Structures are given as C-alpha cells and as structure tokens.
Amino acid sequence: MNKKKMIRLTALVGVATATGVVAEANQAHAATTTTTETTNQTTNASVESTQAAVDAAQSAFDTAQTSVDNAQANVTSASNNVTSASAILSSAIANKEAATPENIASATSTVSSQAVVVASASQAVSEQAGVVSAAASVQASAQAEATSASASLSSASANVASATSALSAAEAALTSDQSTAANNLSAAESAASSASAAVSSDQAAVDNAQAAVASAQAIGDAVAEVQSSDVINMSAAYITALKNYLANPSSANAAALQEVAKGADYVKELQQKFKSDASLDVVDPSDPAVQEALSVYAVNLINHLRNQYGLTTTFGASANANVAALDFVKKYYDYENWNIFGTTGSDGQGHNKNGLDAYAVQLNTSIAEDAGSGLTTWVKGKATMATTTLHNLLYAVYSDIATMLFDDGGTNNWSHAQSIFEDGTILGTDGFNNVYLGLAFDKYGYAHYELYNATEGNHLGNNAYSLDVQTAAQTLLTNAQATLASAKASLQRMTTNLMVAKAAVVAAQDQLAALENSSASDSAAVTAARTQLESAKTSYQTALATYQQKEAALEKANDELANVQASLEAAQATLAAAKAKLAELEETVANLTNADQLLAAAQAAYEQAVANLTVATGNLEAAQVDLAKAEPQLALAEEAVEQAKARAEIATQVDQQLNGSNANDRQSAGQDATSLKTNGRALTATVATASAANPKRGADQGRLPQTGADNQEASAMALVGLGMLGMATGLYGYKKKKLTK
User: Fold this and answer.
1) Pairing state of beta strands 316-317 and 435-441?
2) In this predicted structure, what is the pLDDT of residue 264?
3) What gap in Å lies between CA 78 and CA 72, rounded to an integer?
4) Which three-class secondary structure state does DSSP give residue 91?
C-alpha cells in the first residue's frame, strides 16, 4: 500500500507439538508423502485466494480515495462560489441603498450630458475622416507621379549605360594598339622615374654614409685622444679621507674630506685643453654613436677611479642601458618640463624621484641617478647651454665626474662620490651587483648618469660596448665604412637601372608615334559615340531632376497623410473613451433603476451557493467515511496474504524435513528438536518415541493415516497434521492502531 498509513493486523500462528509412536521409517515416510503434497496445494491455493482479496480491497480503497479527492475539489469550488456570490450580494445591497430618486435622476442627467459629448466626438471623427480621405487622394497622385518619374529615370540611366558601352567599344577599337603602346610608355616612364628616385635616394645614402665615416673617424680620434691622456688621479690623502667619511659620515670626517679635496682643480686644468681643441662640428647628444662614445668615456673614468680606490668590480656600458637612459630622461624630464637645476642653480626641482620609482618598476630593477651641469654654463648667475660639439660633451662628462669627487660637499654630503665608490650597494640601497651606466642629456642641457643593476631579465647589459677605446673607435669606423661601401654599390646598381629604363622610354615613344596616324575611321566612331553619350547624360540629368522633385512631393504627401491619420486616430480614441464612459453611466442608471431585482437575484444566487456548499460538504464527509472503511479492509487483506505465505513456507519446510531424513534417523530412539523460522516467527516441533501403551486420541480428534501394525502411530504424520491445523486456525484476532496522516 502506498496511499495512506493503514490499520495494521497482528496475526498469531498456532504451533502444534505432535507426539506419537514411530513405526518403521520407510512405512512412515511413504504414508506421509501424499499428506504433505495435499497440504502444500491447499496452502498455495490459500495464498492465491488472499492475494485476490488484497487486489479487490486495493481497488475499493483507490475508488474511495478518488471519491474523496473529487468531493474535496467540489467543496473548494463551492466555497469559492459562495465567496463570489457574497461579494455580489454586498454590491447589490450597496446599490439598493444608493438607488434613491435623487441619485437616479442625477445619474440620468449625467447620461444625457455624456451622450452630447459622444455625439460631438463622433462628428469630429467624421470630419477628420474626410480630411484623411483627401490627403490619401493627394498621396496616391504623388505616388503615381513618383513611380512614373522613377521609370523615366531608369530608362535614361539605361540609355547612359548603353551609350557608355558604345563609347567604350569605339575607344577600344581605336586604342587597342595605341593603348598597349601608351601603357608601355607609361610603364617605362614610371620605371625610369622609380630608377631616378632610387638613384637620388642612394646618392643621399652615400652622402650620409660618407658623413658618418667622417664623423666616426672624428669621434674615434677625439675619444681616443682624451681617453688616453685625460684621467683623474686621486691622492692617497684624498682616498684615505674619503674612505673614512664613507665608513663614518661624521661632521669631522666630512670636514677632513673637504679640506683634502679643495686643493684639487682638475676641471680648470682640463678645461684649457678642451678649449684649445674644439674644432669638431655640432653633434646630436642622442645619436647612438655619440651616446656610445660618451658612456664609454664616462665608465673608463669611473673604473679608473674605482681601481685607485681599491675596488676590483667595474661598471659597464651598453647600448641597452643608453636606450633606457634616453627613454627615462624624455619621459620624466623633457615631457614633464622637469628642470633639475633651474635657471639660477637654486630654483631647480632636483631629481624626479617619482619618475625614478616608476621607471624602476617598469624595468624591474634598481636604479640610481647622478646628475651634472653637462652643457650648461653659468653666466652672471643665469644658465646658458654651450654648443653641442663633441669636445664640449666630453668636457661636460669629465667636468661632472671631477666635480662629483672634489666639489661635492654641502647639501650633497658626498653622495655622488658614494655612488661611484660603493660595491654591491648605492647610497645604502642593495641590489647593485652588476652596474651598467646609461648617459643622456635633457632638453635643458643637463647630463643624467643612470646606474642600472643589469640582469638576464631586464637585458640592460645586452649589446655591451667594448671599453677598449681603440677597439670601439675602430669598430665604429669599420661599420660606417661598410655602410658607405654598401651604399656606393647600391648607387652603382641604381645608376645602371636608370640607364636601362631611359632606353625603354625612348623605344615606347617611338612605338606610340608610329600608331598615331593609323585609325581615322575609328576616331569618327569614337566622336559619334561621345556625342551620343553626352546627349544621354543630359536626358538622364533632366529625368533625375524630375524624379527628385516627384520624390520630394511624395515624401511631403506621405508626411501629411501620416499627420492627418494620427489626428483621426486621436479623434477615434476620444470617441471610444466617450462611448465607454457613456456605457458606464448607462449601466449605473440601469443598476440603480433595477436595484430591487438585482438584489433579489444576488440573494438567490448566494443562497444557492450556500446550499451547494452544504451538499458538497456532505458528499465529502460520506466519501471520507467510505475511505475510512476501505483502509482497514485493505490492511486486513494484506496481513492475510502474508500469513498465507507464511503457512505455505512452513508446509514446504516440514515436507523437506520429512523427505530429507535417512534410514538411520528413522530407527533411532529419539530425534532432536527441529527449529523452523519463517516470516520473522519461530516454529519448533518436537518428535518423541512413544511406547506401545500410549493411549489413543479421543474420537472427537480422529486418527491420522497409518501403515503397518495398528498399534504403531505415524508420529511424523501427526506432526504434519497438527502443524497444518495450527496454521489454518492461527490467524485470529487483530489489534487496531490509530490512523494517522
């Protein structure tokens, strides 16, 4: 069962204990075989019978449940009808109370007024419909004219296409050979022009390459000259004082360092040499070759100083470090108009620390920056920028580094010297284990010395420069000479190509001249075709103007029709609203006038709905009673089939017990207890040996079948008979449980 919780029955199985006289085993076994088979058939029939009863009870229960569900639905519907009828009755009562002569008269008057409004709105709709009809007629006429103009335009366009095709055919006949010759000439002239441009370009490249060779030679000579002779040598006293200060930057050590350094005047000494040898042309400080020369010069000066100081690690220079320095200076000084020293030396903005932090994050490395006056000189307290000759740039580098060593006290606290002579750290910041210097000048002429820690990840050490001045200068010159040689070879090739192209132009001109006098008839056809095309184009323009005029008129008519249709729709909406209001008012008058009849009908409907609800409720209760009756009957039938199955199982096990015994067991003086367990219950049968004097059963009990002598009881048959009797009468009584939902 799966409908509801049902009343359960508890059946008790009677258990019989049989005793009797055991005859010879083979006779007793033969005598009991037929009996157990008959018993098995009986119990199986009982199972089938009780199962049929269960099926019938289940069907009755399902029918009762369906009746309850239907009755419940009817009750719900009837209840809803009562609610609805109650609302209608309340409305009818209110309507009855409002149905006074005064209210009826007032409502009737309002209906008359609204009827006037409806009539006026209806008249407006009729008038606007006439306007729409007239606009539709105008639009239809404009549409017809526009359609006609479109057809004329299409025809004129087809005539133009036809004339164009005819002209193309005539021109093709005229210029088939001439066109080929003209194309050949055009191609030859184009090739000659390209060859000429290539020669000009290559000549410029040769000129530039020659200038680059001269510049490389000059740069190499100048750098080699100053690099070999212009070094900065520190005294032992200065080195000692500097080491003491860097180890302990006390005021006493700072004063001692200042005292030792003030006697050095390397800048003025070198300045005389640069002024006496300043014949080089102006150069661009951002030119890669110039950057290379300057950064190699600066790194050699610094490494010479570090060697004197006792350090074995050196700084490096690379193209990548120079590119990064130039990019940084442009972004955070030039573009931001950041003047590091200002115009007087005291109004500068200093280092762009935020820019340094941002660029360090961008490159994922550590960066330190030193800055010098570079090309800037101070005249009467004002900054002026010197001419950017190579000697001026070299002097600026030398002057900056010398100043960082010997004139770096005061607010700088010898920080520039500290950045040059530290190892693995700069200004107390770790992470400078592989320092590469990048050098760039800002737009104010100041020099920026960017110290990067180069790693495999940031590639700042890639494309490193050779610090051997002679090798670097020779490499620069060799590269420039190779570029010049390549440019000259290309110029030679382009010059040869130009000569060939010019010869092709002359040949094409001769071919075209030979064909100019050979197509008189074709020329006449071309002239006629052109005249026809011009006429067709004129007709097309006329048709186009007419079409555009008619299209404009049609668009105007469409707009006017749309406007008057919108007005008609508005009038129709007004009329519909007025009619709806009139109908509402008329309904109000009718309700007031017929208040008595409406109230009587509502009262009757309400009473009928209540009566229907009463009937539906009674039907539901009757169906619930039938369901309550069907539930225990179904439970009883289910329990009965369970008991029938149990009896059948017991009979089967008894038969197996008897059939499975052997000859020795049947001759024994006694047998052990046999325990049978089925359907959760234990059935225990005890078989004992009886004496010949055992009294017979009474006549009301009857005797079991016997084989052999009369005084031998078939105890096994007794067991079967009594056991089956107990099973047949074992289902008795039941205990009813409370039905719950």
Assistant:
1) parallel
2) 65
3) 10
4) helix
What is d(CA 639, CA 655) in angstroms, rounded to the nearest whole number? 25
Q: How far is CA 39 from the centre of its chain?
A: 78
Tokens of 368: 């330190």
The angle at the Cα of 462, spanning 456 to 464, to the nearest 5 degrees, equals 140
d(CA 84, CA 612) in angstroms, rounded, equals: 13
Evaluate whether 447 touches 396 at the Cβ level (below 8 Å): yes
Q: Residues 43, 727: contact at Cβ < 8 Å? A: yes
What gap in Å lies between CA 563 and CA 555, rounded to an integer? 12
Instruction: Please state the length of the chain.
Output: 741
3-state secondary structure of 441: strand
pLDDT at site 736 = 35
562-588 pLDDT per residue, tens: 999 999 999 999 999 999 999 999 999
The 10s digit of each residue's pLDDT in 585-643 is: 999 999 999 999 999 999 999 999 999 999 999 999 999 999 999 999 999 999 999 99
Q: What distance in Å separates the CA atoms of residue 160 and residue 164, rounded to the nearest whole number?
A: 6
Q: What's the mean pLDDT in 44-57?
A: 90
Environment class of 296 (CB within 10 Å of its CB; exposed 0-12, middle 13-18, buried 19+): buried
**Side chain identity at 197, as an amino acid letter?**
A
Residue 112 tokens, joined: 């008359």
First to last CA, the chain: 14
Contacts of 87 (CB under 8 A, 6+ apart): none
